[in-house]
Design a protein that fits this description.
single chain, about 400 residues, alpha/beta, seven-stranded mixed sheet, three-stranded mixed sheet, 14 helices, about 15% strand, globular
Length: about 400
């Protein structure tokens, strides 16, 4: 394996997206088959989930760019204006997708219409989410690059490339930064998955984004406020007693998931509707945040201190370096990770190749143990980082 790997990595570095590193930590052999042997399923001439994802990303970027060029903000446009901007964004995006114009299958054409409906729904939801806080979507589809160095030798081991779907900023002296990644299915930022290298994308992206923003705004102070996932889906609920109530339930179905700063100013910037004042609510419909009757954050809130968020950012970069070194060393054993409900074999396309069977002696899965609460995970991250200083 080492000889094969060296043939593909002559400069002793690994290049690619953070998702490649996450895939390696799911299963090193799956990484080997995907990126070293370059095996892939036969492409079908139909709209794939990647095509749909590209459509949503590009259309929302076009929508936002049009608003910005006309000097408008997301929360300020009227419903009529919004529809006009959306129609323009949809038409421009489909014109750039050659596959769409050649589709003849009625099912595929139906999917195209569903994509249009989902985009309209998403823009409506995002507009509501933005209007409930102090953030303004500022940068879309931002390309990022980062060097990853071995913590022991300081040697360059990886060159990461990626794209941040959306960066939101507050207009304040201490500028809060929120990054959002669009997903086609539900996703959460689990700190235990971060610890095991299964979910490093958002923390690494946030670290790089903060570095880039410091160059863009040299006189501003910046801090990470939220790292969130937004599911691009058009979900439906049964109509309630009132239209407002129905819309609120639908909003909850599209709630962003991820990790928040527990600082009060950051929680309010993400959702100012949560509180104990008249007209406020104890549970956010847009982020994983709620309060108890005394105003303190409740157990369902996925938030940690700013110091802890910075620990997560540093640890993710450290673990990326650790992962890169394993790839360079040619460690591609078939040892898939299992953690809680997560099973890297479940949807694997290479089952017929590896024939993994943990009931047989020569096969062994990596059963990752649960660490506990958020504080315990952060402490273990700190210990790992301290051991490298």
């Amino acid at each position: 394996m080492l000889a094969v790997n060296e043939a593909f990595n002559e400069d002793e570095t690994v290049s690619g997206s953070v998702s490649r590193f996450e895939l390696y930590n799911e299963c090193a052999y799956k990484y080997f088959l995907t990126y070293i042997m370059k095996l892939q399923e036969r492409e079908k001439f139909e709209l794939s989930s990647m095509d749909m994802g590209n459509f949503y990303h590009e259309a929302i970027q076009r929508y936002s760019d049009s608003l910005k060029s006309d000097g408008k903000k997301w929360k300020e446009v009227s419903l009529e204006e919004r529809e006009a901007y959306i129609d323009t964004a949809i038409n421009q995006t489909f014109e750039s997708m050659s596959k769409v114009s050649t589709l003849e299958d009625s099912t595929q054409k139906y999917i195209v219409e569903s994509m249009k409906d989902t985009l309209r729904h998403s823009v409506d939801i995002i507009t509501t989410q933005v209007s409930r806080g102090e953030f303004e979507p500022s940068i879309f589809e931002e390309k990022i690059e980062a060097e990853i160095r071995n913590y022991d030798t300081n040697e360059l081991v990886a060159y990461l490339k990626g794209k941040v779907d959306r960066i939101d900023l507050t207009d304040s002296d201490d500028m809060a930064v929120r990054i959002i990644d669009y997903k086609s299915s539900g996703h959460k930022l689990d700190l235990e998955e971060c610890f095991y290298g299964l979910s490093m994308q958002l923390p690494i992206y946030m670290g790089v984004v903060l570095e880039k923003l410091k160059e863009k705004y040299p006189n501003a102070t910046l801090h990470p406020s939220a790292m969130l996932y937004y599911e691009m889906a058009n979900k439906f609920v049964e109509r309630g007693d009132t239209l407002a109530g129905t819309n609120e339930e639908r909003l909850k179905l599209s709630r962003m998931e991820g990790l928040l700063s527990s600082e009060k100013v950051d929680l309010e910037a993400n959702d100012a509707t949560v509180g104990l004042e008249d007209g406020q609510t104890k549970k956010s419909s847009i982020i994983p945040y709620g309060i108890k009757t005394d105003g303190e954050i409740d157990a369902s809130t996925n938030a940690v201190s700013l110091e802890s968020i910075n620990t997560v950012l540093d640890y993710s970069r450290y673990y990326a370096a650790k992962t890169a070194q394993k790839i360079i060393d040619g460690d591609f054993n078939c040892s898939p990770a299992k953690f809680g409900k997560f099973d890297s074999c479940k949807y694997c396309s290479f089952k017929s190749i590896c024939n993994f069977n943990e009931n047989e002696e020569e096969f062994q899965a990596r059963n990752l143990s649960s660490i506990g609460n958020k504080e315990a995970v952060i402490e273990m991250m700190k210990e790992s980082l301290d051991s490298k200083e």
